[in-house]
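re: ur question from earlier - yeah i can do the single chain one, its not a big deal. heres the input i used so u can compare w yours
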Amino acid sequence: MQLTAQELATVLGAEIEGDPSVKVNRPAKIEEGGAGAISFLANPKYEDYLYETTASIVVVSRDFAPKAPVSATLLRVDQVYESFARLLAFYDQAVQARPQGVSPEAFVDPSAKLADKVAVGRFATIERGAVIEEGAVIFDQVYIGAGARIGAGTIIFPGARVLHQCEVGNHCVIHSNVVIGSDGFGFAPNEQGVYQKVPQVGKVVLEDRVDVGANTTIDRATMGVTRIGEGVKIDNLVQIGHNVEVGAHTVIAAQTGVAGSTKIGRYCRIGGQVGFVGHVSIADGTQIQAQSGIAGPIEEPNQAWFGSPAIPYRDYIRSYAVFKKLPDMYRQMHKLQKEIEALRRRDE
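and the output i got, formated as tokens:
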């Protein structure tokens, strides 16, 4: 795919400074560049690269004033990050080779309902009673279970599974090998201590504009709903347990595990490899540092936590500053103890 600076300026609403006919075919970092690449400059720390870059086009802010000659064509925009994000989305759609229409190699149950402009790839399966709303894109080898609902404009990448009765909202993105609606971890011991399966008869509901990273699993509720709120962004390899609720616009980084019936508030930021015990509530706006362990509820909103078990972030940093000094403190105490014993022996 090749686009001229003029075509991109039309897409971004940009002003052109340089050659409007120059063509690009890929995005690149400004320090790497290369002929045919488009890059951007938003952080002043990278400005020196602008004067050396071999990229053909660079997106900059409208008020940027170069301090030296620039060989690249400049596209001047109001918001650099936002404009480049739009450009990456435009490029992504162009190179993905999305399915068009419903592949004859897909299985679609006659009772399933597909709205207009739905695309279904090869070897995808859509079971009885499923509903796929307008403009949804179902890539190859996706499984949509009986009675499931996929919202308008949602994209589901190859190998993902949305199991029976689960609901995915509008304009969501489900990446490869995600499983939505796997059974919650429910077992009860009988009189002999043998664990028996507790049927998991609830479902998962993803609200609008949720992104779910590759190989993440979201368990269905034992009863009721496991709910992921509007605008939530979940990284790869995250485990969400049964009956969990995640509030709107919370972000969760990779390898985090959330045990059953935990309620995470709105606008939280959760680092990688965080572990949550079950049946706790986390206040809105909570920030949790990577590799922390949450062993109890967090009631005060907009606070940062760190450690395992986690404590308020500043308390952890102060405690860690002392912890690092423990070997020296021990040696000093040992030395003082010897001196005290020597004094006692002398006095005796």
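The chain has two domains: 3-95, 107-316. not sure if urs matches, ping me
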